[in-house]
Design goal:
The protein is 37% helix and 17% strand.
Length: 366
């Protein structure tokens, strides 16, 4: 990743072992585990034996991947063990958060909003940002040569109501096309397809394009696809929230020191990524290999990494906009997001680093 591209933008279940088996569908879990471990006898953070951290095996969760691989979270937590769970989709991570199987998670804006709204504002808080960008509409250039050619075609999104699904439906509406959000039928057909199977669907012609996050977008390009829309170009200053940091409200109330420690490690990880872009890219890929058994090839990893920006700022105004887009598409009732953010600890960390506070767009706890 170039130095400019990695700039700072100011980011149970009994089946929990199963949740760690895949990283966005690319391969199976590796047996080797050479990550940094808690030091026996070292001081524990907030008196905790462990802090349980969830993330996706996606390049858009670069902070969590690199922070795990390089040991930034574990080093900060000292004698408290950093335990990790890898998820394929937002709903399963929210379920784990609700069940108390994880304490802190890296997750996209739509599942964070859905989880917050459906719990009546009781289950989580967004406490930091992690990534912006890394989402594209990739199409078959033999079938789609311009935006107007998308009409009548079959376009994949990862999941009904997920962040990219909402973004595509909003973009389609802006083109004047009508689509029933639930069925996906209309002037454009929306095919909800897991990221791990979308490349095969694209290769066989089952879909004509896909609005997807990295690294799936770059995998489609490697299959001969063409980037028709980079979502960053649709947002002011080309910034929009892709990944946030969320925490269980109960854990935040009982263990603020632990949450602050993880946020310190997240900020430190982002600074390291910015200062060492190539080493950070390699570290993220090493963690993907450890989590899934398969690293990404260079023709997928390089462009995926280049399109991502790590950030401590949760870019709250863009989350509010995304929520309005979901409501306009009929996927979400007009949501009450008051209190979804608590950026107090992040601002404390940033102040200690001589950095300005970040904005909660009026949606913070009062």
């Amino acid at each position: 990743m170039s130095a400019a591209a990695v700039r700072r933008a100011l980011p149970v279940l009994a089946v929990l072992p199963l949740l760690a088996l895949t990283a966005c569908g690319y391969g199976s879990r590796a047996k080797a585990d050479d990550t940094v471990k808690a030091v026996p006898g070292a001081a524990r953070t907030d008196g905790l034996d462990s802090v349980r951290i969830g993330y996706f095996g996606n390049v858009t969760h670069a902070t969590a991947l690199v922070g795990n691989r390089k040991g930034f979270f574990q080093q900060a937590l000292g004698g408290t063990e950093a335990k990790y769970a890898v998820f394929n989709a937002g709903p399963s991570e929210i379920e784990a958060l609700n069940a108390g199987s994880i304490d802190i998670g890296w997750i996209g804006p739509s599942p964070a909003v859905n989880g917050y709204v459906r719990s009546g504002g009781e289950n989580l808080r967004i406490v930091g940002g992690s990534a912006s960008g890394g989402v594209k509409l990739v199409v078959n250039p033999g079938k789609i040569k311009s935006v107007r050619d998308v009409a009548g075609k079959r376009i994949a999104t990862p999941q009904l109501g997920n962040t990219q699904d909402v973004a595509f439906l909003h973009w389609a509406a802006e083109q004047g096309w009508r689509v029933d959000a639930q069925s996906g039928k209309g002037d454009v057909t929306v095919v909800r397809s897991d990221n791990k199977v979308t490349p095969d669907a694209f290769r066989t012609g089952s879909v004509d394009g896909a609005w997807v996050p990295e690294p799936t977008a770059s995998r489609l390009v490697a299959e001969g696809g063409k980037v028709l829309v980079d979502e960053a170009g649709l947002w002011p200053e080309q910034k929009f929230v892709t990944t946030n940091i969320v925490v269980r409200q109960e854990f935040l109330a009982e263990h603020p020191e632990a949450v602050e420690t993880v946020l310190k490690a997240s900020v430190a990880t982002n600074r390291w990524i910015e200062a060492h872009p190539e080493a950070a890219k390699a570290a993220a890929n090493e963690q993907l290999r450890a989590d899934s058994g398969a690293a990404l090839p260079a023709d997928v990893l390089d462009p995926a990494w280049e399109s991502l920006t790590v950030t401590d700022d949760p870019l709250a105004a863009t989350l509010a906009a995304q929520s309005r887009h979901a409501a306009a598409a009929g996927l979400l009732d007009d949501p009450d997001l008051d209190g979804i953010y608590d950026l107090t600890l992040l601002d404390k960390v940033l102040e200690a680093e001589g950095e300005p506070a970040v904005d909660d767009a009026g949606l913070g706890v009062r």
